[in-house]
Fold:
Amino acid sequence: MRMKPIRVLIAKPGLDGHDRGALIIAQALRDHGMEVIYTGLRQSAIQIARAAIQEDVDVVGLSSLSGAHKSLFPKVVKALEEQGASDIPVIGGGVIPAEDIPFLEEQGVKKIFTSGSPTDATAIYIKQLIHKRTINAPKKIAHIGIAVESIDTALPFYQHTLGLEVEAVEKVESEQVRVAFLKIGETMFELLEPLSDDSPIQTFLTRKGEGVHHIAVEVEDIEKRLQQYKEQGIRLIHEQPKQGAHDSQIAFLHPKAANGVLFELCQQGEGE
Amino acid sequence: MNTSSSEHHPKQKWEKDVKKTTERFPERKETFHTSSDITINRLYTPKQMDGEYIEEIGFPGQYPYTRGIQPTMYRSRYWTMRQYAGFGSAEETNERFRYLLKQGQTGLSVAFDLPTQIGYDSDDPMADGEVGKVGVAIDSLKDMEQLFDQIPLDQVSTSMTINAPASILLAMYIAVGEKQGVDPEKLTGTIQNDILKEYIARGTYIYPPKPSMRLITDIFGYCQEYLPKFNTISISGYHIREAGSTAVQEVAFTIANGMAYVDAAIEAGLEVDDFAPRLAFFFNAHNQFFEEAAKFRAARRMWAKIMKEHYGAQNPKSWKLRFHTQTGGSTLTAQQPDNNIVRVTLQALSAVMGGTQSLHTNSRDEALALPTEDSARIALRTQQIIANESGVADTIDPLAGSYYVESLTDQIENEANAYLERIKEFGGAVQAVEEGYMQREIHQAAYDAQKRIESKEDIVVGMNEFKLEEEIHADLLRVDEALEQAQIEKTQQLRAERNQAAVDQCLLKLKEAAGGTANVMPYIVEAVKAYATVGEIANVLRGEFGEYSGM
Structure:
């Protein structure tokens, strides 16, 4: 984790004098532990770029309510480029019609928060944006979990139709589930069969029927990720890693965090 | 004249006033009835009128004006329906004005673009990207002539949202009037001209507070002589509220600013009763219906007491707080914009219950962009429905006597007075503004409100509750990006064609006046008539006064 707090420059380009939003976002970001510098009103693109460099900020947030965003925001992006600071991302907010967002993003603005966006969303986004560099991308899909009524009935398709080999069949009493692993290339299918009505897999089957249940991605930094997700307000099912099969550590994210897909983080044990 | 008022019972005095008023402005109907044919009285009062009722609530048109400033209020005339409009070029805005007048609007209200409001011409580098965006771009008298083309200035009243360069735009209005053959003394309308709230909340300041206050008192002095029917200032709580203040803060800070203007004018040698009758106010109508209605009533009572007791004004016109209201722009949501029509209706109703003199209802799409013609019409229709269909205007101050509303009125007055005390300790509003006191108070209230919304302690329908998945916003008004270039060319052509020597001479004379103590208004009027631009005039004053650079 970075030790020093994220530094943000909140700026009002152009002539618009309404800075209620800018002041609120500045304070909300401070409440999230960031260091925020507010430029005050009527800043030119060049003034903003210079301030961003002098203050050594991680991100620039622009606010405009006058309708001049299409001309002003890209100018700030350009001024940063010209000053050799194109690595400082620019985000924006204010009275900005959704139709203008693609244009602004094309012009290099990273993200637009329209009116009504909660301040937390902006804070979380900035944390993700800045911390992204400190997280390593997952190496591969560890396995794809598929919920089935009965492993015995489902296996012939995987064994004979697809021609895969069964790696192992285990019971996980704590989850009231029986699992079968089938290796495919560098990853695996995991068939999940409920052992009782209390099993989470039974709940899934009752609600949705058989089908893909979750995707597990293999990571090397499970604790750090969970810590960071927690700070960013990402919804989690497990806030701490728990013991998985073969000495692995696992944790599930909430499907609401990922467009309805249930993701599992999976870190292999030291021995393997 | 006011000694005679104590000789009669206030009720008899009011009845006499009603008689006098109705002779000049007959009531809308001979008699008013409900749907069930129940007669609606002009006024309802407690059965027993004790001293406290007379002193604190009283009668409409009577000190302390808690129940309204006119003896018959909306029984004679509805409030003025005045929609703020302006975008793009002078020609386009002129078209929208004439459309609104044809739709039954009764007064004009001009929105200027930001470069105009901050004293930059359209071709100034600072104006880049802002020309014609939030209002109409006015660079020279030529633009102003087009803005009021075919609109006779002796028949409309015009409100102009202009502050730091108010003297320049007022001078242009006078010049357009003269070209139409209308004497300045016949001109009616309002300039906002309230610089203190610009430092506090709205941000379109140019000069530091002291010379800004001098420009304002120069306008007071000039108008007293030449434009006796023009409202020289609109002391505005609206933007203070939009910046996130509470209702109490809105009243307190607005009245504190009002007192600062009165102090400045008295210090400049003006007599309170000569300028105070032309002071107007501008408030916000926000969401909480009863609190808003009570706020207007409390503000009226506070101002009356301050003018009479603190400043010793003798003329009852100096005691009356006349105000314009606009519904709260920041209450509108970008989500499900049609819901905003309902919000605006409730807010507008609170302003009418509070006895407003004129009203602007916001358009449903203002959280997204400038209003389209359709949206602007619905906003105007909202007022027309309240006036013509709801019956709320048929009796005066119908909320009076409600235990709740009277108690709220008292408490708002008390808490606002506590703020006035604190501001007095700073040495008045100018000092409090310079030290950022009001700004900090407002920011804290705004942040608290935002947190309540995010924690869903406060529900905003369609935004943090009762949401819809996807929303597509069709038909937003877009200002043509080509307009900026056209406006720049127009102004550059004007500079090429005008008599430059005459302009230079006018600007030189203005510079001398600004450097001394003379009233600058006559010099500004001469300069605009020679087609000096807003930017040129403002720059001369920048040279003399300096620029304010924020906190």
Q: What stands out?
A: Chain B has a mean pLDDT of 94. DSSP finds 23 helices and eleven strands in chain B.
